[in-house]
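Structure first, sequence second, as always.
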């Protein structure tokens, strides 16, 4: 591991080390669904659990959101929790909150000390990113700044610039997810990942989505991606595969290249 690069340490998990971490999403629309989903997911021992709160029907009730986050924390113990309200323009569910309300809610969740990481899209207004950077830092929550393109794959230099932009905004972790329309697009994503690994000082998460991009979820870590997303119970994005299958593939690759 390059000693000049930062790692993010969350509840004993090292993001940015030699071991890729597996994150599984929670996508229930109410507390009962989330708890039922979580009971099954936690037995599969993911490294990180992402609560995709844009699926939550009571997102406009901050107290219910925080109470639910507390219940998730109680059930998962020391598994790190990533809190995400994915915007509709980047693949999330429609929500009733205006952006200022969303910023306030994410800030309140940071202050609750129930989550370990938050994800926010870097194409949002810089002042909003700044607010969340300040709040998350104050309360010890790691910030992922992300970019999602569900329609195409920009060229590799543009993808690298997105990752560097996240770093320049103060992100702890940079993330990009793009949609391939050909096998060549998948190679573009992997090339960008490899190049960014040489230039970034923070951990990153990269993936090519959909059926064509599924292979990047399996071995994108070989090129420098530090987290991969898998299905625990239900998928939150196209191309995710079951956690058991993903873990098996990663272990097989690690043995074959001597990285265990």
């Amino acid at each position: 591991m390059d000693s000049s690069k930062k790692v993010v340490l969350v509840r004993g998990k090292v993001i940015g080390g030699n071991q890729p971490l597996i994150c599984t999403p929670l996508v229930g629309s109410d507390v009962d669904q989330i708890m039922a989903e979580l009971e099954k997911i936690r037995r599969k021992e993911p490294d990180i659990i992402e609560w995709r709160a844009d699926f939550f029907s009571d997102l406009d009730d901050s107290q219910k959101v925080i109470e639910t986050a507390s219940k998730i924390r109680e059930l998962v113990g020391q598994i790190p929790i990533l809190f995400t309200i994915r915007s509709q323009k980047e693949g999330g569910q429609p929500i009733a909150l205006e952006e200022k309300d969303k910023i306030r809610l994410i800030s309140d969740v940071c202050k609750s000390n129930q989550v370990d990481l938050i994800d926010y899209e870097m194409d949002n207004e810089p002042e909003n990113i700044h607010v969340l950077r300040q709040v998350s830092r104050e309360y010890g929550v790691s910030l992922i700044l992300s970019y999602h393109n569900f329609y195409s794959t920009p060229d590799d230099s543009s993808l690298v610039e997105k990752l560097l932009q996240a770093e320049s905004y103060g992100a702890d972790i940079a993330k990009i997810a793009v949609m391939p329309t050909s096998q060549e697009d998948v190679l573009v994503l992997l090339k960008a990942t490899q190049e960014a690994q040489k230039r970034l000082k923070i951990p990153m998460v990269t993936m090519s989505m959909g059926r064509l991009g599924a292979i990047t979820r399996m071995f994108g870590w070989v090129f420098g991606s530090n987290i991969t997303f898998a299905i625990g119970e239900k998928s939150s994005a196209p191309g995710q595969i079951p956690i058991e299958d993903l873990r098996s593939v990663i272990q097989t690759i690690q043995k074959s290249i001597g990285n265990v």
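Margin note: Residues 16-145+214-253 form a domain with the TIM Barrel fold (CATH 3.20.20.70).
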